[in-house]
Amino acid sequence: MRNGSTLLADFILMAASKPLAALDGDPMAVEALLRDVFGIVIDEAIRKGTSASEKVCEWKEPEELKQLLDLELQSQGESQEQILERCRAVIHYSVKTGHPRFFNQLFSGLDPHALAGRIITESLNTSQYTYEIAPVFVLMEEEVLKKLRALVGWNAGDGVFCPGGSISNMYAMNLARYQRYPDCKQRGLRALPPLALFTSKECHYSISKGAAFLGLGTDSVRVVKADERGKMIPEDLERQISLAEAEGSVPFLVSATSGTTVLGAFDPLDALADVCQRHRLWLHVDAAWGGSVLLSRTHRHLLDGIQRADSVAWNPHKLLGAGLQCSALLLRDTSNLLKRCHGSQASYLFQQDKFYDVALDTGDKVVQCGRRVDCLKLWLMWKAQGGQGLEQRVDRAFALTRYLVEEIKAREGFELVMEPEFVNVCFWFVPPSLRGKKESPDYSQKLSQVAPVLKERMVKKGSMMIGYQPHGTRANFFRMVLANPTLVKADIDFLLCELESLGQDL
Ligand SMILES: Cc1ncc(COP(=O)(O)O)c(C=O)c1O
Prior knowledge:
By secondary structure, the protein is of the alpha/beta class. The chain has two domains: 171 residues, Aspartate Aminotransferase, domain 1; 246 residues, Type I PLP-dependent aspartate aminotransferase-like (Major domain) (Aspartate Aminotransferase, domain 2), CATH 3.40.640.10. A seven-stranded mixed β-sheet has the order 2-8-7-6-5-3-4, with helices on both faces. Strand 9 and strand 10 form a beta hairpin. The protein is globular, with a radius of gyration of 26 Å. The chain starts with a helix and ends with a helix. The mean pLDDT is 95. Bound molecules: pyridoxal-5'-phosphate.
């Protein structure tokens, strides 16, 4: 029988002997593994993943994919060869969002400098909360936010990188509420009258999600009418404010959108700012999609008036291609509102007697504890491209949009939903059997079935990916997004020819 002290000795011996996992403590083996993995990443995810001659996706039914990936986790570790095979399989069956035929989302393409930033971020694996453990990134985040604020038109202010535009929008709602009712931080919903916020029917769904999440309730979101281009109508905003007040609610926030998700519309910010000024409402601009237009001297007029906002959400991971996630919440406030609203002064992290300026410990401004570094990918890409290079990307996306629009107008079987204002091009592909039948009573219902069928065909073939949706009373249409900076006219021609070919029998 082994006594307690022998057991303790064994235990200590275990700590001092060779580590358990195969590679732990073997720097040569670690390096060899990572070189192999990087080789696979470069071949499969980057070279093939961005090549027009490769598939954009490798569709499998979920049950088959589960089998192919052998997802179940086992008690025994695997050999290095098996692990490398697994890395290959993960990339092979994943959608290649950097592919020139991936048009499905508001982000696409693969910027090598941003990717380099993401790799460095992952490798350093730090958290953005204190200068102590992220000295470079605390300073860098502030510099990048300052640059974004300057593009908005502010020479002072605050901000933070958030995990996505939805969260940036929620922060804005929380800040607007706190500014008006600081008591609610402690007393919660008990400190509040029924509140009302206003946004257009074209807004992103994160506004109503945010209202639910923050305890405001989705009923507190008053939907303002938009015109036929998808822009919020200021006169209807006035009407909705009066209505809400008459019903006993207290208006506190207007969320305008610069670059709506489907139509790409820009709300009239100056006119909305006038309304907000009259009613003393917080103006938030959800520029998650359209914010990057501020870089273009030619097109930034679309956001005229943005400098009058109280807060702006801007996702450089969308049009600028910085990589997921990169979303800035920018504030005009200079009174430390972010920190007052969210801070909780945890004494084990934000000690006030540190040996450096504790104002650099920015982590108490946010509701997260650990927070990813999201500034490096944008900073490195900006350093490489310069503001001018990024401006050219934005201008080029607009130019290619024009090309696509003219092609759609010229080709039989394609119909624009509307003239685009931005780089979202919404259009129908009308298959041969429906051409010239617009007047027939089931036209719209039949047209609605076209996009889902074509989507299934393109995904199963792996030739391209493009999103579709219904919109109000409009039948399903495609939304083409020109965000990938490597796109050329040939990619646009491919898109149209491929739709024609996939839909010729319909
Ligand atoms: C206008 C708008 N706002 C907010 C978001 C949400 O951004 P995220 O996906 O980063 O949460 C989107 C996403 O498409 C958007 O289009």
